[in-house]
Amino acid sequence: MYIITGVDGNFGGKVAQEILKEVSGDQLIFTSPALERIDQAKIERWKQQGVSIRAADYSNTDIMTEAFRGGKRLFLLSAMTVGEVRQQQHRNAIDAAKAAGIEHITYTSFLGADRPDTFQVVTIDHRATERYLQQSGLLWNTLRDNLYLENYLVAFAAIAFKDRKWHTSAGEGTAAFVARDDCARVAVALLLGKGEPDTGYDVTGGELISVHDICNMVAKRSGIPLEYDAMSDDDLFAYYDSLGVPRKATGDFSRSPYPWCSEDIVTNEAGVREGTMRVVSNVVERFTGRKPLTARDLLDKAAVTWPKS
User: Fold this and answer.
1) Are 97 and 2 in contact (CB under 8 A)?
2) Above 80 in pLDDT, residue 272?
3) Distance (Å, rounded) from C-alpha 281 to C-alpha 201?
4) 200 and 115 in contact (C-beta within 8 Å)?
5) Could you report the per-residue pLDDT of 110-127, keeping only the tens digit for each?
6) Is 192 left (phi over 0), alpha (psi -120 to 50) or beta?
7) In terms of Cα–Cα distance, which of 228, 286, 302 is closest to 294?
8) CA of 202: how far to CAs of 6, 143, 265, 275, 290, in Å?
9) Which is nearest to 152 in space by CA: 131, 168, 173?
10) Cα–Cα distance between 218 and 227 in angstroms, integer?
11) Contacts of 272 (CB under 8 A, 6+ apart)
């Protein structure tokens, strides 16, 4: 039995969609901390295919242990709240997996979690989780994903359109940004046992591009001129303060246009600027049999969310 966590979200939902192409529903358990956030028609379709749907919250080890029972291989989607909260939630999930008899965990980590030169705040959580997983006694694989193209083409583009400026501290640095769908397909391959045991994989796009390049693509495709505003990290923090984005993941998100804290965003942009995301791997093609999607490949789909010129 295979378990997919976080099926209420974009990534977990895509993994659920992809694994149903490979495995019959009666071999699958889908979990979510908030089943009410999932379209009920989708849940019914899953049930009709034989999928078991269970509630599982990373903050409750006992509930997770029961939700994970009967499974052998677990896809562990990383939690949202950056910092110690997330680290504890991941420890809870790994402990629950052990208690439930899980044999293998496929975990969504982050590019550079295994390297000492990375400074993004997000790598702290993933480095700690990878270490805990490696010490758990369970078999494992980790996907060390680069930054998602969709975040730039949809979420960051949406804010840029408001004042027609793309605010960033990434400068002219380049990165192998990756499509979320490619990462989901790699996750399924690893969950099905196609990777080497106890191995982490850098999951990246196939080309190095800059945030400036993405800004120009969005402007050209939308017909809306966008100024590329290369800022310092301090100025970018101040900009996000003005939007109501909290600096810490435990802050107030009631006015924030993003689900991410600015400490997360700004340190990732700095990572692009400083070159820590300039890693190009063949992992997507190796495990999916297709070349990685590019920013240009995703423009039409992203454009549906943009304002009209």
Assistant:
1) no
2) yes
3) 9
4) no
5) 999 999 888 999 999 999
6) alpha
7) 302
8) 22, 6, 20, 15, 16
9) 168
10) 11
11) 147, 170, 171, 173, 174, 175, 210, 211
Q: Which domains are present in the chain?
A: 2-145 (3.40.50.720), 150-174+206-279+291-303 (3.90.25.10)
Q: How far is CA 21 from each of CA 87, 179, 185, 199, rounded to the nearest angstrom?
A: 32, 19, 11, 25
- pLDDT, tens digit, 9 for 90 and up, residues 11-23: 999 999 999 999 9
CB atoms within 10 A of CB 53: 18
Would you give the distance in Å from CA 119 to the centre of its chain?
A: 18
What is the pTM (predicted TM-score) of this model?
A: 0.96
In the 8-state DSSP scheme, what is residue 1?
-
**Beta carbons of 309 and 221 less than 8 angstroms apart:** no
Residue pLDDT, tens place only, 94-106: 999 999 999 999 9
Number of Cβ within 10 Å of residue 71's Cβ equals: 24
Structure-derived torsion over alpha carbons of residues 308, 302, 161, 270, reported in degrees to the nearest 10: -170
Between CA 49 and CA 213, with CA 9 as vertex, the angle to 5 degrees is: 125
